Here is the input.
Amino acid sequence: MLELICPKCHEALTNLGQQWRCDNNHSYDQARQGYLNLLLVQHKNSRHPGDTPAMLACRQAFLDAGHYQPVSDAINGAFARLEPGAVLDMGCGEGYYTARLASALPETRIGGLDISKDAVVRATRRSRSLRWLVASSARLPVAGESLGGLLSVFSPWSWDECLRTLKPGGHLVLVGPHADHLRTLRAALYDEVHATPDLLKDQPVGMQVVSDETLRYPLHLTPDDLTNLIGMTPHSLRSAPDRQRSAVASGLPGLEVAMRLVILQRC
Ligand SMILES: C[S@@+](CC[C@H](N)C(=O)[O-])C[C@H]1O[C@@H](n2cnc3c(N)ncnc32)[C@H](O)[C@@H]1O
Here is the structure.
């Protein structure tokens, strides 16, 4: 089990069947779907934070079609070598990478956390045996120095929280876009393709890069796949609908995945 803490007072949470409680008598009910909501109302930035149900449906369909399975396999391979003991997937979405990691490493204690309740409800359907949490990556509800591994795939994370929760020697695996990622799609949707932000911006003292690789491969997608790919990203909201339709109709030859997989170690 992950070592959960109370989001109000940060004392350890004890499991009492369907309820979790700390020594200060703050209690949290486990939802009937099996997840635990540790996101306090005052820490929500909107009524329904995180990805929308429509984005989640598109992402689940796209991921279940296997288009990013090589990325998931690379993540699983990295954690198999690192032997982290306990891993938390921050911004796990509908749980594709989390559940595949749990299947690949059955001895590892694995949890998935997302600020979107809709995402976490979907994730519970992938596996009932993982610890699924509604919470924010900005305030991880886990004890200090209790994790051997943290994962973020295209999701926000807090360097401070990574430093607090990782054991010394523990690892953070970050997956995010390389400048070439889906460039053909972005060029089809916008007049100007914006620069890709640096994944390691603001890297703190105390976290050292131990490996940095780029996963590259071509994507050959059907019109339905392309519709899901656009729908699962903010491109669906930011770009013009007619540009989206033309991109789908073109089939986007030359489309390429280019994701950075960076492993950092807490000193
Ligand atoms: C691009 S999706 C990636 C989901 C998943 N990692 C994947 O690659 O399939 C980003 C996810 O981060 C979640 N998210 C956004 N802000 C968050 C926060 N502060 N804490 C936790 N999750 C957050 C969203 O709800 C969404 O599910």
The chain has nine helices and eleven strands. The chain has a mean pLDDT of 97. Residues 50-51, 59, 91-93, 96-97, 114-116, 119, 136-138, 153-156 surround S-adenosylmethionine (CB under 6 Å). The longest strand covers residues 166-177.
